[in-house]
Design goal:
five-stranded antiparallel sheet; Phosphorylase Kinase, domain 1; disordered N terminus; single chain; Killer Toxin P4, Chain A; 665 residues; 17 helices
Length: 665
């Protein structure tokens, strides 16, 4: 009996309706336009982004996963599309096409964005994020109906997710689905998935992180949690079976080359044309419905807090001030009530503690002292600034707490601590060979360039120093501590203040004398920091008869610039790189701000082997010393214990910082 084309159309449309009705039972939270770096209309970055999105949409349905990049240097765009492993190629193709359109509409002119739209998610960026696990931002989307027996439900769901996760990490598709009994008549269905570029350990960690946010009590009967690197969904119905129908394979019958078409074959030919037309129309319908679903459910979004979760995402997919609040009880538990055994160090604003959240994530908690100069306004400044900035060379802020007279800032934990503890500690400085120091200098420069030129508003840090540079597990530098930072609009070049705040030795002369600050005052601090990294000396030390920039200048003027190099560095270093960095440091600390280079020029100098740079002039705060001896550090280190200089920062005053309320004259 011949199958009716009308019945096929009905079944196909019913399938489409079923898929999108199932997806519609959840509220979608997207997108995340995390980066404050913007591109301009008509730029090379925009052209590369268009090519990237088109390539992702065109290739997504082949395997359900595709990554690509377009462009070169700073205009390179990296993109990744992932479809859920349980959906058909048709649904994947439709979702990818919709996501490519929506991410441009919802994140206009953003250089980085992430969009989750039901059965697929899309991520693009200006940096190569492939194979890098990320669970931020995390979107938590739960059904409004709760289960009748949450204890049993959560126990069964946890067992199912553990089993699926252990299988998914070993699967080439990084996907698995399954069911487990809940009641006599009801099963729990779930799927888990990581992006296919992740290693097994990274995938497992990501799935554990997002599983940990599912509440154990008064639990919802369905929901999904997803982030850029992994995804899970659970329901009390078998949703993944609806999304992946077995494709029908047409049976091809050989036909004689000279055969004459019969009325039956003509009829079949007409039916084939109808089927092709229906397939094309259905594909277009899928695209339209995917776009409509994303738009409609985005409008219906409400801010939710998952029980046991510290993350809230607002309607625009961005972290708001409220969303970053973390309870004092949570932080006390994480730090064992701020025990001394968890203390990482102490600065002018207060101590910093290592902690671990209940999901296993390590954090660093800065506990602002009541005697510090940083009050609630400075804390809010730091929260709103750092939370909106996303760059590999800026420390990531996770949240804050203002409760019971406590003022706490919560950051990502960086295991190697601050640069000063390695650079100025003679017992550890051997771990900083020249190649690593050069990488640190370049990373700090990239972070400052982002603050000064690439972020939406110009940010002046005002307290750049070695103790505010943190190092991750790979010794990559991250700029931290934005409590003194100030914002400039696009056309603003400098500002004045009567409240001078910062750290002696790093502050530019125009800032100390007149209260003037600009990007060039940060450049001055960067220059001092570069000279410290090269020499392994603090800019102002009781060991030195003159300051560091004066010593560097006299070596430069005498043709002995390499004498500034830290003796701990072995012979494996680039002479040209060292001299270039000394020259950059001296250019940055010149008296007049106009003579100092911009961070974009500094990046060019660091990146190029042949660019010619101007000769530096006398540095600010120049001190001339007769009998200048480039080996004074060695002599100091061999003095008696009573007269020995203290080069270990851990033995110095814990409050080396930060002066405030000094009025400029």
């Amino acid at each position: 009996m011949m199958k009716s084309p009308g019945l096929d159309i009905f079944k196909l449309l019913l399938l489409v309706f079923t898929v999108f009705t199932a997806e519609a039972q959840l509220e979608y939270k997207s997108p995340s336009c995390d980066s404050t770096a913007n591109y301009t209309s008509g730029s090379a970055y925009e052209r590369n982004l268009n090519l990237t999105l088109a390539s992702l949409a065109a290739n997504a349905s082949q395997t359900g996963y595709f990554e690509t990049s377009e462009g070169e240097n700073l205009d390179t765009v990296y993109g990744l599309i992932q479809c859920r492993g349980d959906i058909s190629k048709e649904v994947c193709e439709a979702c990818a096409a919709a996501a490519a359109v929506e991410i441009r509409r919802l994140c206009p002119f953003k250089m980085e964005a992430f969009l989750g739209c039901g059965p697929c998610w899309l991520h693009y960026s200006f940096w190569r994020f492939f194979s890098t696990a990320s669970n931020q931002p995390t979107f938590i989307l739960f059904n409004s109906q709760n289960v009748s027996n949450p204890v049993v439900f959560h126990r069964q769901l946890a067992s199912l997710l553990r089993n699926l996760s252990s299988k998914a990490v070993l699967s080439p598709s990084k996907f698995d689905s399954g069911i487990i009994p809940y009641t006599q008549f009801t099963n729990i269905s779930a799927v888990v998935q990581c992006t296919r570029d992740l290693e097994e350990d990274s995938c497992q960690t990501c799935l554990q992180d997002i599983t940990a946010v599912i509440p154990c009590c008064n639990g919802p009967e369905g929901g999904q949690v997803f982030c850029p690197s992994c995804f899970l969904r659970f329901e009390i119905y078998s949703f993944f079976q609806l999304s992946s129908p077995p494709p029908s394979t047409p049976v091809l019958r050989p036909q004689s080359p000279n055969s004459t078409p019969t009325p039956t074959s003509k009829k079949k030919g007409s039916e084939n044309i109808i089927i092709v037309a229906i397939s094309v129309a259905t594909g277009l319908l899928l695209v339209v419905m995917a776009i409509i679903c994303c738009i409609l459910f985005r409008r219906k979004m409400k801010t939710k807090r998952a029980a046991g979760s510290d993350v809230i995402v607002n309607e625009e997919g961005e972290k708001s001030m409220e969303s970053l609040l973390i309870g004092l009880t949570t932080l006390k538990a994480a730090t064992e009530n701020f025990s001394d055994s968890n203390k990482l160090g102490e600065g002018g604003f207060g101590p910093v503690y290592k902690g671990k959240l209940r999901n296993g994530k390590q954090i660093a908690v800065k506990r602002l002292s009541s005697r510090s100069g940083q009050g609630v306004e400075e804390l809010k400044t730091e929260v709103m600034l750092v939370a909106k900035m996303l760059h590999r060379n800026l420390v990531k802020l996770l949240g804050f707490c203002i409760e019971e007279e406590e003022k706490l800032l919560v950051y990502e934990y960086l295991p190697n601590g601050s640069l000063d503890k390695i650079l100025f500690d003679e017992s550890r400085e051997l771990s900083l060979e020249w190649e690593r120091r050069y990488k640190i200098i370049f990373g700090i420069a990239r972070g400052l360039l982002y603050l000064h030129e690439d972020s939406q508003l110009r940010v002046i840090h005002r307290d750049l120093k070695a103790s505010n540079i943190l190092l991750d597990e790979h010794m990559n530098p991250k700029i931290s501590d934005f409590g003194l930072a100030r914002l400039f609009d696009e056309n603003q070049t400098q500002a004045n203040t009567l409240r001078i705040a910062g750290t002696y030795g790093y502050m530019a002369p125009e800032y100390i004398k007149k209260g003037q600050f600009s990007t060039k005052s940060d450049v001055y601090s960067f220059g001092i920091l570069v000279l410290e990294i090269i020499s392994g000396r603090k800019n102002s030390s009781s060991c030195e008869s003159i300051n560091l920039q004066s010593r560097a200048w006299q070596n430069w003027a005498n043709g002995t610039a390499l004498d500034l190099l830290d003796p701990a560095i072995d012979s494996e270093y680039s002479r040209d790189e060292v001299i270039k960095c000394i020259q950059i440091g001296l250019l940055c600390v010149q008296e007049a701000p106009v003579d100092r280079p911009t961070m974009s020029h500094i990046i060019t100098m660091l990146s190029s082997q042949t660019i010619s740079s101007p000769a530096p002039s006398h540095p600010a705060f120049f001190v001339s010393a007769s009998g200048f001896d480039s080996d004074s550090r060695a002599e100091n280190s061999s003095t008696t214990q009573e007269g020995k200089c203290n080069t270990n920062p851990l033995q110095q005053s814990i409050n080396e910082v930060t002066i405030s309320e000094l009025h400029g004259r």
